[in-house]
Amino acid sequence: MKLRIPLFLLLLALPAFGLAAGHLHPEKWYQERWCADRGRMEVVMGDGSRCDCLTETHAVEFDFGHNWAEAIGQALNYSAQTGKRPGIVLILERIGDERYLERIRTVDRAYGLGICVWVVDREGRER
Q1: Where are the alpha helices (DSSP H) in 21-67?
Q2: 98-111 and 68-82 are packed helices; what angle lies between their axes, rounded to 10 degrees?
Q3: Is the pTM higher than 0.70?
Q4: Distances (CA, A) of 10 to 42, 52, 85
Q5: CA-CA distance, 92 to 104, in Å (whole number)?
Q6: Please, where are the H alpha helices in 16-97?
Q7: Residue whose C-alpha is closest to residue 86's, from 122, 62, 120
Q8: Cα(90)–Cα(118) distance, rounded to whole angstroms?
Q9: pLDDT digits (tens, 9 = 90+) for 70-119
Q10: Which residues contact 122 (CB under 8 A, 6 or more apart)?
């Protein structure tokens, strides 16, 4: 018996894999490569949220450049719950995505948030 899945159901599932927005890889692909030897992935916080990577010193959120503002909020939430420094791994896949990094740095400086930002490119290389 052949399994037939309507195309519209597949399209609905794409956002869960980070591919609907035209990303080269899903967020988890970057997360696995960066966090594997640095900490623990998907650590459940007291409020039920999941910290993407918890290291000895940082509570780290992973996100694509265009989600820079959400990344700040999530990193600060994880930091507040763990007592660790807030961190963001910002995934910059496209030319022009550097503007999102500058936005994070501007907000961080303006409010003294102490966010540590790492940048990875479309190949998962840290810059």
Answers
A1: 27-35
A2: 40
A3: yes
A4: 25, 25, 38
A5: 13
A6: 27-35, 68-82
A7: 62
A8: 6
A9: 999 999 999 999 999 999 999 999 889 999 999 999 999 999 999 999 99
A10: 24, 25, 92, 93, 94
